[in-house]
Amino acid sequence: MATSRSRNLAAAAEAGRDLFNAALHWIEDHAPVFVRLFESLAPGGTLAVQIPRNFGAPSHTSMGEAARMGPWRTTLEPLLRPSPVEPPDFYYNLLAPLAAKLDIWETEYLQVLEGEHAVKEYTKSTWLSPLLAALEEPERSRFEETYTKLADAAYPRRPDGKTLFPFRRMFIIATAA
Predict the structure, then answer these.
(1) CA torsion sign, 15 to 20 to 23 to 29?
(2) What pLDDT score does 15 carry?
(3) In the chain, which end has fewer C-beta atoms inside a 10 angstrom radius, N or C?
(4) Cβ-contact 109, 59 below 8 angstroms
(5) Among 125, 121, 134, 118, which residue's Cα sits nearest to residue 80?
(6) What is the pLDDT of residues 11-65, one digit of tens each?
């Protein structure tokens, strides 16, 4: 699947599409993909990438903690993935020798989420999803409850019903010579 995605992303860059929003981090060992995408640009072309850098946040570390806490450990532990995104200097070292211009920065958005167990619900559509899918009931519900308690403790719901969820992102803009 990653190879198919890599080919599709490279084809998109060759067609002049050079913006990737929260996509490349899903490809394991994506460094060669970055290089191929950049090298496929026409002179003066730009590769613009936005990728999450929140994998060290409690929203994500609590998944691993919850996965290791119960009888589901043997099922879930092999699915735990280390941070798929490297620090900014990694991408600088990767692209600076190739780029005429390179800008890399990080920012942290404060997302205001609503509803009960807001962070759990948010992560359920991304990193939590494969863990839940790997379990049958009643373990699925028990694991989800364990993670929910950890996430709720890290991101408490405010008296106004909202949950503040800081979310770090990295941006890369590289221009070809």
Answers:
(1) positive
(2) 44
(3) N
(4) no
(5) 134
(6) 544 544 455 565 666 667 788 888 888 898 889 899 888 988 998 999 999 999 9
